[in-house]
Amino acid sequence: MRNNCTAPGVGFLPGVISQLRSKPLFGPQDGENRVSTWTGCYTVAVLARRRLFGAFVAEQFPPAAETMGQNDLMGTAEDFADQFLRVTKQYLPHVARLCLISTFLEDGIRMWFQWSEQRDYIDATWNCGYFLASIFVFINLFGQLSGCILVLSRNFVQYACFGLFGIIALQTIAYSILWDLKFLMRNLALGGGLLLLLAESRSEGKSMFAGVPTMRESSPKQYMQLGGRVLLVLMFMTLLHFDSSFFSILQNIVGTALIILVAIGFKTKLAALTLVIWLFAINIYFNAFWTIPVYKPMHDFLKYDFFQTMSVIGGLLLVVALGPGGVSMDEKKKEW
Predict the structure, then answer these.
(1) Is the pTM of this model over 0.85?
(2) Of 19, 96, 209, 319, which has fewest CB within 10 angstroms of its CB?
């Protein structure tokens, strides 16, 4: 008895049908096996039609095919980002922390080498005397360097973050940063980076119900990550260059789009990793302070801008390493 594998609307697949006729799927040709053979033929035919659907769409509907190609490109980019994370997951958090605290490290070292200048500036600004001015410089030097060491060594990270928060507040008042919008935004963004560090150091809300989704969603860590991402936007806004050159316009448009994706938590890891590469290339090219003689004012300006940008990169690397957190579009998409 012969197995018929054609059905209305399915079509005829000569090679597959001849194979199934010569080699039935399940042993002897009885009624039950005939049904199994028919099911196998139908499944193969449907899969073949689905496979040809992409070519049909590309021929009949070019815009739809283009959209499918863009989705494939996005998927390839996300696969690359995931592969990068798998390879660097042991080292990426350390590099991120080093970049993020680089501003504090550089400022602490500068306090050591410019002790007299900093002391005289504070004394002249606040008329507090050499002793109090020296105490101020010492607190900045010791607080920043010790905080950086604790962060890099992963010891008492939460206390180090709180100490660095205090340094930011102290400098904001002492240097009258409250009245300078650009520097205020930079200091707030540094606070955002510290929030990401604090979120990294926190556990996922230890309790007897740990692991229950409702407990995890309400964890303060999620909101720290959200605050850190949003505050990073403020620092990036201070790095925008408003001039009419094509490269600056392109840099501002692309960078703004990527940082918005990071802030709302959409395609977060891919956007943050792309922004890291983009900012690093720009930083090396535009803020090469090592090419300027030390005695020129431009040297200090470019040096400050360089380490501020490195702090942005460090914050973004922490976003890449940690993910966007629970308060993000990426996480909400999983619920949809």
Answers:
(1) no
(2) 209
